[in-house]
């Protein structure tokens, strides 16, 4: 999952899931809800031609950065990746959008303090954003290189964010993490070149063919990713949206997902499977999700022959000791359904 703690990430289940998907056959592997891209990467390493998709640009950026190979991001004009990262880590601080909106910088009473970052780190994020922007404008980095750097910034900002896991809200007092200085770290770019493509569509609008293998990993709780990851989304978009209210969310309602509403989730899933022409479809879901297992199987069974695999004792997202004890008694079960038409 890289360094971003992403709700519903399959990072810990990658091997189990990809073992069931297997090695590349005909067609592409389509990761319709790619999130951080853990499954897309595993499929690519299993020789699949990968098409990844997510409505969030932050997710598309994190996924692309996992699929981009060294040969696509050599940073030739700037003396290599490590040298660019060193330069970015040494930029002069700037007082920009992150400083104003997402730090405890409020200089007067009308400003709202939103300490998602320490003042120093907010200025560093502003400075690194400006620098990546000017490198791209001057054509010193290509589009893949820009994507890698933005993903690096999303991940390193996440390490020093003053939050409890997601960007749903900030902590009142700066945490120990938040006080350490933000530092970009170069990732290990892939030596193997993967044949990949990325899109940022509603899953319903993705082009799929009969011979493709489709993987569906939708949200399963009420937590809307566009709200819970609004800051990664702003870094990926490199914009300065109008933010408001205590938590300073960017406008996100246009990206609200039907899968996050208990009353809409099963219809949304049914409507999606209905339009998929592909012979093999996989669905990841959780026993704690909006759609219960029986209803899910009923939907799946109406489209073909199905099989289900359970992943018991999947370590769940816990925030305190009490819920940890609860988790031990009631292990969250994740499962994978395969439909063969
Ligand atoms: C459970 S997460 C996927 C996790 C991913 N497999 C991973 O390992 O990181 C669900 C993802 O679906 C995306 N999403 C929600 N509704 C969507 C829709 N209608 N179409 C495409 N993506 C959607 C969210 O932005 C989120 O990234």
TrEMBL record:
**Catalytic activity annotated for this protein?**
a 2'-deoxyadenosine in DNA + S-adenosyl-L-methionine = an N(6)-methyl-2'-deoxyadenosine in DNA + S-adenosyl-L-homocysteine + H(+)
Keywords for the protein's UniProt record, in alphabetical order: Methyltransferase, S-adenosyl-L-methionine, Transferase
What's one GO MF term for it? nucleic acid binding
Q: What class of enzyme is it?
A: transferase
Read off the PROSITE patterns from this record. N6_MTASE (PS00092)
Q: What is its EC number?
A: 2.1.1.72
The entry's protein name is site-specific DNA-methyltransferase (adenine-specific)
Q: The organism's lineage?
A: Bacteria, Pseudomonadati, Bacteroidota, Sphingobacteriia, Sphingobacteriales
